[in-house]
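Why do we bother with holo predictions? Because pocket geometry can differ from the apo form. Keep that in mind while you read this record for pyridoxal-5'-phosphate.
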Amino acid sequence: MSITENINKIKAGLPDDVLLVAVSKTKPNEDIMQAYNGGHKIFGENKVQDLVKKYENLPKDIEWHFIGHLQSNKVKYIVPFVSLIHAVDSFKLLKTIDKEANKIGVRVSCLLQMHIAEEETKFGMSFEEITKILNSSDFKQLKHIELAGLMGMATNTKDTARVHKEFAYLKSCFNSLKNDFYKNNNSFKYVSMGMSSDYKIAVDEGSNMVRIGSLIFGART
Ligand SMILES: *Cc1c(COP(=O)(O)O)cnc(C)c1O
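The structure, written out:
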């Protein structure tokens, strides 16, 4: 099947309110253009250098999402054009994004990454850490970021019960934060969870943004 057929097949199985981020990391511009010409405009990258290069060389109406671990010193390269930063995992990073956005007069949408998997290697914060940030006066001073929700990655396991549980936990944390901090504010709206291997479980558990790479573009080498 073609890239566009893959995308259309995935979209046909997603509820209307679930956004698909086509994860194009490591894939060439031609693959992205195939998806683009088929009508898909939202792509995810996880390396700053690759993202900047692709942004420069591809149509300007593409919505670029940064989905990887972001280093503070590289924030400035993507802030001018990025649509959503998925994996903000410290207050320091949030503050840096705010500072760089302020310099050029933009507002950047961000998701906070929560640690929900059992693996220790995966980045992300605990619910307590996130609550502490949202309660802090330092956070309230950030005017150039918009907190748009949460992101998380489940354990890479065949134990689907475990994956269900981890995604359900992330969704419950989202609901709780929404209720406590963003009750009358629709900007806090995304739960970014689910990849090629587990997006159906994630959608079952309330994801409204899935990040899918290999199912669309084929395996990465
Ligand atoms: C690579 C990546 C994905 C997509 O992974 P696939 O298994 O290819 O769908 C999703 N989210 C993040 C954070 C990634 O790094």
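Residues 23, 25, 46, 67-68, 195-197, 211-215 surround pyridoxal-5'-phosphate (CB under 6 Å).
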